[in-house]
């Protein structure tokens, strides 16, 4: 079968075996009764999204696994599913407390990062990872469930309430998903975005352009030193800043954080419950598909898809590959 790999020669479509990796689910935990001899189940991929983190990872050099942690498709019995790409152990202190996103094992068991991911014709996954899709959500679009889960986790971390004024900084895929997640909880959402196309996308999802006054909650979806500084400026004294944008380089925090005693709340991945809730949210906000997915490519055109995703001149929001 075909699988997208990052090699010394760049993004290539390789031929690999259609079988679970030795050890079960690519090294993940197994379960009795699953399709594969190791306990893994097979997903026939319908769509896989290119995440900004994918671009950062391939820039670091060749990867030994198939790319793609945002993906959805069909089980062998025809069930349409999105796939949660992390595999928590279920037995550690964090998992037992319902904080699976903090599981130390899950950080080393992620499809598309340390295990073979979804940019392939098929992928074998732990049986606890597929999440059935609600009616009306096409598997070819459901790669959006993963970034929606990131956004839902960020909103959940601070318990966003109806009527709260929220500022979202950044209107890339995660920022736009945060708008949808916060709006679904009844919040009034302002958006700090600079590119015209992203401003239009934010408005389509119910965000208001521009920041005014001070906010109880500021959600930084950009993940840069400048966005962190802006977040501290816009937070009210004693307010909260949630960081959902990944800090790929050290970020300096200025004195405003101290003077205003702003609380910094990191939000990185999500729980299984939040992932399932994100699938439901995608059904409730159908405009997300048209707003976020700006480019679609066949799997064989993966190199061009990654070029488009990494080129700011294309103004891509979410680029999706379809086997």
What characteristics describe this protein?
single chain, 323 residues, alpha/beta, Quinone Oxidoreductase, Chain A, domain 1, Rossmann fold, 2 domains, seven-stranded mixed beta sheet, six-stranded parallel beta sheet, 27% helix, globular
Structural features, described:
The chain has helices at residues 52-59, 93-96, 145-157, 173-184, 196-204, 225-234, 256-259, 272-284, 287-292, 302-310; strands at residues 2-7, 10-15, 41-50, 70-75, 80-83, 122-125, 130-132, 165-169, 188-192, 208-209, 215-220, 235-243, 263-266, 293-298, 318-322. The chain is α/β, with parallel strands linked by helices and 323 residues long. It folds into two domains: 2-136 and 286-322, Quinone Oxidoreductase, Chain A, domain 1; 148-266, NAD(P)-binding Rossmann-like Domain (Rossmann fold). Strands 3, 4, 5, 6, 7, 14 and 15 form a seven-stranded mixed β-sheet that branches. Strands 10-9-8-11-12-13 form a six-stranded parallel β-sheet, sandwiched between helices. A two-stranded antiparallel ribbon has the order 1-2. Strand 8, helix 4 (173-184) and strand 9 (188-192) form a beta-alpha-beta unit.
């Amino acid at each position: 079968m075909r699988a997208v790999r990052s090699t010394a020669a760049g993004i290539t479509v390789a031929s690999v075996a259609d079988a679970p990796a030795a050890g079960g689910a690519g090294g993940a935990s197994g379960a009795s009764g699953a399709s594969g001899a190791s306990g893994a189940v097979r997903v026939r991929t319908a769509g896989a999204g290119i995440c900004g983190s994918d671009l950062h990872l391939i820039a670091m050099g060749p990867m030994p696994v198939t790319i793609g942690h945002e993906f959805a498709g069909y089980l062998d019995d025809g069930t349409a599913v999105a796939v949660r790409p992390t595999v928590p152990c279920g037995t550690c202190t964090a998992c037992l407390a319902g904080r699976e996103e903090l599981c130390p094992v899950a950080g080393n068991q992620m499809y598309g990062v340390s295990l073979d991911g979804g940019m392939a014709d098929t992928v074998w996954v732990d049986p606890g990872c597929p999440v059935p899709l609600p009616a009306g959500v096409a598997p070819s679009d459901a790669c959006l469930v993963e970034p929606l889960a990131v956004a839902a986790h960020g909103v959940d971390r601070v318990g966003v309430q109806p009527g709260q004024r929220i500022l979202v900084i950044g209107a890339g895929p995660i920022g736009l998903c945060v708008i949808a997640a916060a709006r679904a909880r009844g919040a009034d959402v302002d958006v700090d975005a600079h590119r015209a196309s992203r401003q239009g996308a934010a408005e389509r999802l119910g965000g208001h352009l521009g920041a005014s006054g001070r906010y109880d909650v500021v959600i930084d979806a950009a993940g840069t030193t400048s966005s962190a500084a802006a977040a501290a400026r816009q937070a009210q004294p004693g307010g909260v800043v949630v960081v959902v944008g990944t800090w790929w380089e050290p970020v300096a925090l200025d004195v405003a954080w101290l003077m205003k005693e702003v609380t910094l709340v990191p939000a990185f991945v999500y729980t299984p419950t939040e992932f399932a809730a994100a699938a439901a949210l995608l059904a409730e906000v159908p405009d997300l598909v048209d707003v976020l997915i700006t480019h679609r490519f066949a799997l064989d055109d993966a190199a061009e898809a990654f070029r488009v995703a990494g080129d700011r001149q294309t103004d891509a929001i979410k680029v999706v590959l379809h086997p």
